[in-house]
Structures are given as C-alpha cells and as structure tokens.
Amino acid sequence: AQTVTQSQPEMSVQEAETVTLSCTYDTSESDYYLFWYKQPPSRQMILVIRQEAYKQQNATENRFSVNFQKAAKSFSLKISDSQLGDAAMYFCAYRRTNAGGTSYGKLTFGQGTILTVHP
Amino acid sequence: NAGVMQNPRHLVRRRGQEARLRCSPMKGHSHVYWYRQLPEEGLKFMVYLQKENIIDESGMPKERFSAEFPKEGPSILRIQQVVRGDSAAYFCASSPWEGQGRTEAFFGQGTRLTVV
After folding, report:
1. Who contacts B104 (Cβ-Cβ below 8 Å, separation ≥6)?
2. CA-nearest residue of chain A to B3?
3. pLDDT tens-place string over residues B46-77
4. CA dihedral A3, A93, A84, B38 (to 10 degrees)
5. Are the Cβ atoms of A105 and B109 closer than 8 angstroms?
C-alpha cells in the first residue's frame, strides 16, 4: 500500500520569506501523481500544485514550486515570497494512475503541516 | 459551473441517531470520493463511487456506514447509530472521467459531524 509522510507537524515563516515543506512517500509503482493541497480555516481543500511522476521537470505555479526527487521518493513544496494568506494546513497527496483502463482517483494523504506566516 | 456542493455544512446528532451527508458533484463529473478527517489528522479515503456503482469501499468501516450514488440526485454517505468516535469532517470530492486526461479531483467544503 502507498503511504505518504509529512515529518513537519508545524512550520513558520516570515512574510516575504521562503519556506519549504517536506513530503516523502512510498510506492512500488513507476507512474503516479503527486499533489499539494492547502486547507485554510474554512476547511476548503484547495489544490496548490501537482506533479506527474513521468515528468522530470519540477512543477511550478507562480510562487509555489516543487522539488520532485523520484529516486528518493521525495516531493517538497517551496513557497516563495510568503504571504499572510498562505497560512493554512498543507497536505501532500499521492494518487496512482489508471490501472488496466479503469479510472482510480483515490488520494492518499499525509498527516499535514500547519504553516504559520508572521507579519 | 458550481463547485462540489456538500450539505449540511454542520450536523449535530445524538448518539444512536442516523447521520445523512449529501454531496452533489460538479456538473459533468461521474466519479465521487468520500474522505474522513479526524481532528488534527489528514484525510482518509473511505469510498469511491461511480453512478449506481461502488467501485472501492476499502476505507469504509464494516458496520454502520454505507454510501450510494444513484442515477439521479446526490451521493449520500449514511452513518447509522452514530457514536462519539464518528465526530469528524467528512469531505466529498468529484472528478470527471479519467479518459478525458484530467487528473484533478475537486473537493467540497465538507460536513462537520458532531456527535453529542
């Protein structure tokens, strides 16, 4: 079974600084998707960024970027120029690709990292 | 295009009562997933449904929990004879047919169930 581990229960950063959230995962599959989700106090799950395992290039979305190390099974999230609105719980998630043509969108989540942004 | 709609947002039930949580997927989405989030924890997969079919219920407790996604209407997660340990936030997510090449699941805002 796949597992996702976030070893940092809490992180903090000063506004405008950069912070990196860690995530490792375990899988025997070679092709899969990885995601970072943000959950603010409203509880809404917001997709921040996604990475397809077959792509070597790290995904980037504005101030958010990932460092995807497939061999090490590591998938960290870097937030640049941190803003107060970035404060939230962040979840790393894994999802397998299609298996035998059958869609399978189940996500396996890590435990989450609470990010605090200081003004 | 409205997002994934869950209702109610908050639900309070006494021990032994039934809880019924509803999820209307995004328009055009035929796949629904239910997750449970206990306090201070990540989301845990419960069940995956397509219209009129349960595809994977490996995360569902063996007793008291059931889910359906009928041909018409929302998906329903039903918890019978609730206990305090069922108190959690329950999230629904939907996605379109994977054959369209989309990989993203869209989440609702969740239903917070409190059992008193």
Report:
1. A47, A50, B95
2. A44
3. 999 988 899 889 999 999 999 999 989 999 99
4. -70
5. no
